[in-house]
Amino acid sequence: MDDGDLETVPLDTTLVELVTFHGRDFQRYALENGIYYGPVDEHEADRHRFMHEVFNRMFDNRLIFPPLPAPRRILDCGFGSASWAIDVAEQFPTCEVTGIDIYPNMAPEDLPPNLDLQVDDLNSPFTFGSNHFDLVHSRLMAGGINADRWGTYMADILRVLRPGGWCQMVEIYYNAQSDNGTLTDNHALRVWSRTYLQSLQPYKNPRAAMQLQNLMTQAGFVEVEGRLLTLPLNPRDREMGAANRENVHRLLSSLAIYPFTEGLGMTPTDVQLLAAQARMEADNPSFKAYFPVYVCIGRKPGGSNHSKGSHQYHHKSGRTSDSRKRARH
Ligand SMILES: C[S@@+](CC[C@H](N)C(=O)[O-])C[C@H]1O[C@@H](n2cnc3c(N)ncnc32)[C@H](O)[C@@H]1O
């Protein structure tokens, strides 16, 4: 994460070494250093692209929610398949977009000229200069940011933003819910959820999604605004489209396979059986199951870009996160 002249340093080959568990490829470095437990193969890169499509639908194709009509410098924390970073670089061709990820190879080789992808661990203090970016974006990073890093992660983001710049975060709380009372704690979706939350602790904070507003406020952000949306698990949900079918079906095994087996000692067969049963419940429209999705924006004090405007996106099921409906913790 170097703020100096754009000097390209050859990539350390240990960072692209893979290790296979139960038919999926993982980054050896991320596993060995307790950084991230998700697969990094092409199958997972595809799922990230599907997930990006689903978010585009959820957010009415808005990539940036705060009022920032002409951003000049953007940082994307944990670019993954680089879908968001590429779209944002193409939408704002004069903006310098920088992406950081611990694993570089889920992104395509062909990138827009204004997108620079770098490899680093976001659990280490940022080395970017202060007051630099107009926007810092962080989406689906709870599986990778250490539980005790969230406070300093927010502080680092605040520091590298220019006064008046914005932070935008999106996290899914992987705890399946249903508002009609049909999903009980014995259902596979609930067992999967409990097991997933347990498998990440104590090193990661799988409940970070619900804490974004507090974390941002505590770090010193102002105009902090949170929304609670829902990711429907029924793959036939027309609003979310066909991409959600692939996304939901795949995530139930891809997020679970390493932490459930290597972390909790389940057999791969048991994990696949649980995932298959959870998929059947997700497919069953009567459960109306969903994962809560938390969105939060906040502004660094000062600067000229003062705006009392609210999120520049909306969604039918959108609501402020202090509204009546609450996720089960
Ligand atoms: C679930 S994916 C999300 C990708 C992207 N933000 C998106 O919304 O599509 C998490 C990504 O963060 C990366 N990652 C996880 N922990 C990290 C860390 N501590 N430092 C850098 N990258 C990390 C992983 O390699 C993976 O590409």
TrEMBL record:
This is S-adenosyl-L-methionine-dependent methyltransferase. Keywords: Methyltransferase, Transferase. GO terms for molecular function: methyltransferase activity. Signal peptide: none annotated. Pfam families: Methyltransf_25. Residues 74-165 form the Methyltransferase domain. GO terms for biological process: methylation. The lineage of its organism: Eukaryota, Fungi, Dikarya, Ascomycota, Pezizomycotina. Gene3D superfamilies: Vaccinia Virus protein VP39. Residues 319-329 have a biased composition (Basic and acidic residues). The keyword Transferase applies. Residues 304-329 are annotated as: Disordered. Belongs to the methyltransferase superfamily. LaeA methyltransferase family. It comes from the Eukaryota. Residues 308-318 have a biased composition (Basic residues).
